[in-house]
Amino acid sequence: MTSIHLLETALLLGVYVLLAGLYGLSYGIDRFRHRRWTQFAARAFYALHCAAAVSAIVWTPLYPGWKLLLVASSAAIFFIPRLTWRFLERTHTGEVHS
Amino acid sequence: MYRSQKLAIKYMVAAISLFGVMTLAGLLSAYYYINPDFLFGILHFNIAKILHIDTLVIWLLMGFMGAIYWFLPDELGREPIGIWLAEILFYVFCAAVVVVAVVFVVVQYGGSDQAGLWLVNQGRKYVEAPRWAASGVVVVMVVFAFNVIATAISTRRATGIIAVLMIDLIPLVVLYLDAFPAITNMSHDLFWWWWLVHLWVEATWEVLIGCIMAFTLMQVLGTSRRIVETWLYIEVALVLGTGILGLGHHYFWIGTPDYWLGIGGFFSALEPLPLLGMIIHAIYDAGTHHMKTTNRPALYWMMAEAFGNFLGGGVWGFMITLPQINMYAHGTQWTVSHGHFAFWGAYGCGVIAVAYLMVQKARALPQVDGQLWKWSFAGLNLGLVAMVGALLVAGITQSMIERATGGSTLQAYIAGQESPWFSEAMILRFVFGLVFSAGYALLVYDLARLGRRRTVAQQTALAT
Q1: For chain B, how many structural domains are there in total?
Q2: Mean pLDDT of all residues in B459-464
Q3: Which residue has better confidence, B38 or B460?
């Protein structure tokens, strides 16, 4: 791996996780605000996250196994905010009625 | 107030004081990078670094113990069994910390023999304390575990949080025993040493802070026990699922078999996923309560913990966790950057949140807010983020110049150290270390003065 490949790959992996976080953050805000821009932001951040994943797959010298892990993680990341939110609502709603 | 809670306050005061020593030793360590001749022949970099990282461990440990001693009697409805022993050991613990610090600063070096191991320095990073002091830490931890477990058994009220805590305290004590062996084969030594460093930090401490945050959430936001316990169980499952075998990412390049590259890379790459769930949970809590609470500093520090953990552990960790990258980044300032951010996010912020909660309860303050905590919050977090940013630049420079280009030769090491990217980043790190220190000073002042100047109306209300 050349020094430039090292820099590109590491930063891309950092951006990959950062965008996942921004997707989660904007998804959460959207669930409270229900505004067009919040919904757009959540979708845009997830799209950018996927773009980071594709970039890492196409342009970095990572081994295929790690690239496969990135694809699987991106799929999981799409569902984590939704599932977590649903679970949170269910536990809190149950609390109110109990 | 229970005796256990009075002891908790003492532990928290000691923890915040050691936080100051850690910050001072960190500043000193940072300054050596700018002026390597500083205190030449008097106090070298390695001693300052030992003080920095050992006080990091001890201030967090004391903060955790303080938090547990604070919540325990409320949770179980009685004074912990053997609290008198814990009270005595607190002073022994503090005296031992002072003696060890004085030995590190004054004596500095011991011989490579049993006397050196027992009296001066064990020579193992993070657990350098000489064996007599390390043995003392074991005694303190055993008594701490006894206080919790014996009290829970005697009251027959092992709640979900207490049950998790009781189970967690066993590996917390047992893993510390890993501080003692003096193994001459370096690969074997590092293999077992990482059990202590990684499994304490990414397994037992994670569960411990999870229990502490569960108690804190119930008090700060009034979250129900059922909810916090459900999430605690999920956290324990995720920690066991990803954190334990994530240990493998420390087994790169220390002479362990190749399969650790795959195991370590895979499981540590999964670690950001539960942290993303934590972000969602933080937003949910903040949104449903509209950030309204009687203790805003505690709430904000809890939020800082969720986001700091994600950024420090998740983003910074993921950059360097895959073996192909780690081969170049391992042991550079890049790792230091990740370590600072992750420790701060995962633990430091949590202990500060508990400190504010304890101040509120101890001084019977109906509301904790004001301006000072905001300046302290900003100083500490901005200082920390800028420091880790500077360290990131320095670490990337080392990885590119020293490792990827130069092939890890001594000449390449020197070239990396002399690069303006590296040297200027280290200056910036020191400058933002000063900002962090200013934030710390404000934190101490705020914690000390909160509620001290009550209005006449408040005093009358309290009196009635």
Answers
A1: 2
A2: 59
A3: B38
> What is the distance between the alpha carbons of residues B426 and B404, in angstroms, rounded to a whole number?
21
- In angstroms, what separates the C-alpha of B313 from chain A's closest C-alpha? 10
Other CB atoms within 10 Å distance of the CB of residue B453: 7
Q: How confident is the model at residue B123 (pLDDT cuts 50, 70, 90)?
A: confident
The verdict on a CB contact (< 8 Å) between A28 and B279 is yes
Q: Which residues of B touch A16 (CB under 8 A)?
A: 318
Residue B347 inside a domain? The answer is yes
Contact A6 B400 (CB under 8 A): yes
| pLDDT of B162 strictly over 80 | yes
User: B196: part of which helix (H) or strand (E)?
Assistant: helix B186-199
- The boundaries of the domain holding residue B33 are 1-182
User: What is this structure's pTM?
Assistant: 0.93
Instruction: Give residue-wise pLDDT tens across range B293-304.
Output: 899 999 999 999
Whether the predicted pLDDT of B455 surpasses 60: no
Domain total for chain A?
1
Q: Does B280 touch chain A (CB under 8 A)?
A: yes
Closest CA to A23 of B280, B392, B378: B280
ipTM of the complex: 0.93
CATH code at B365?
1.20.210.10
Residues B74 and B142 in one domain: yes
CA B247 from centroid of its chain's CA atoms: 18
Mean pLDDT of B165-185: 89
Tokens (6 digits) for A89 = 């609502």
Cβ count near A86 (within 10 Å): 11
3-state secondary structure of A78: helix
Residue B56 lies in a domain: yes
Beta-carbon separation of A10 and B325 below 8 A: yes
Same domain, B251 and B122: no
Q: Hey, what are B160's tokens?
A: 């979900």
